[in-house]
C-alpha cells in the first residue's frame, strides 16, 4: 500500500500560521550583502549567545533555543549537525511543530524526499489539518508554542546595522508573541514566576528602548531567583542596562543637555558582572567588565585624560581575556576600546593599530564609525608632535579615508571628518596644502567641503585655502 504524501504547497495554503524557522522574514534567511567571513562571524556569535542561554533552560523553553541552534548550524554548513539537533528535539518533544518543519527543510536540502514527506505528514496531523483524522492533544497549545519560539528567534537575527532594523525585527517578534497568546491564553500567567521568561521580556523591552520597564522586569527576575549560579542571565542584563544608562547620560552631557552621568551605575554594573564572573566567565562578561573599567578610568567628557590608571590596566586585562576566546579576535568593539585605553597610556602606535583593526573588522554599512575618527585624530596628533612626517600622514589618511568610504555610509564618514577638521584645523590645512602640491586634489576637495560645511557661518571661506 502506497504511503499518502502531503503536498507542501496545499498544506501551506491551509495554514493560519507556518511552523519552522527557514521561512521567517529574518536576514539570516536571505542572501547577505556582507562578506561571507562577516556573516559567518555574526552567526557564530549568535550561536554562542544561544549556548549560554541554553545552560539555564530545563523546561519546554529550551526547544526555542535548540531549534534556532539547528538553524544556525545549517547556515554554517553543518547540515548533519542541524539534522541531529532537530531529531533530538523530536525524541524529547515529539509534538514540537517547528522541529518537524525544520527537519523537513533539512531533508529536502539533502534530497531525501521520502523523509521530508513523512515530516510534513506528521506536521499536518499535529496541526489538526487532516480532514479524516482529528489530532490528539491540544493543537491550539502547539500553535502557541510554535509561534512563541518563532518570536524568540527574531531577537537573534544577524546583520541588524541600524536601530530602525532592530526595532523592525523585534516588532515582528512581538507580533508573533501576541499571536501565540491568542492561541495559548496562558503565557502571561506563568511569566511572573519564571525567571527565564522574565529575562526574555526584559531583553525585549531593553531593545525597544523602554528602559524603565526593562529594569523593572529584570528586578522581578532577580527577586524571584537572586542566586547568580542559577540566574546569571538576569545579572548580565541588569549590568547591560546600567551601562547603557551611563552611556546615554554621557552623550547628553556632551550635547549640553544634562549634568554628569551617575558613576554609581558603573559601580553597580561592576558588582553585577563580578557575580557573573565567579559562576559563568565568558567573552561578553569580560568585554562588559573591560568597558566598565575603561569608563571608570577615563575623564567622562572628552575621554582624553586618565583619572585612574589601575582601572585602565584592569580594562586592558579583561580585553586580553576576552580575546582568548575563539571569537574574541573578530569583535571590532574590543579593538576600539583597547585602542582608546592605549591612547590614554601614550602608546600611540599600538593604539593606531587597534583602530585600524577595528575598521577592518567592522561590517559593510556599519554605522559604528568611532574607530575611523579615533584613527584620524591619532594620526594628526602624531603629525602635530612631529612624530610622523607629511608624506607618511598623506599616505595613511588617503588609504584609510578610502577604506572608510567603502565600508561606512557616506554621511557617517563626512560627520566624523567634520569633527576631526573642527579639532585639528591647522593640521588639516597643512595636510591639504601638501596634497595639492602633489596633485592629490580629490581628497583635498573632500576635506575642504567638510570644513566649508563646518565653518559656513563665516569662520572660514574658500580664501582660507589659498595655496
TrEMBL record:
It holds the Pfam family TPR_8. InterPro entries: TPR-like_helical_dom_sf (IPR011990), TPR_rpt (IPR019734), TTC22 (IPR042342). This is Tetratricopeptide repeat protein 22. It comes from Phrynosoma platyrhinos (Desert horned lizard).
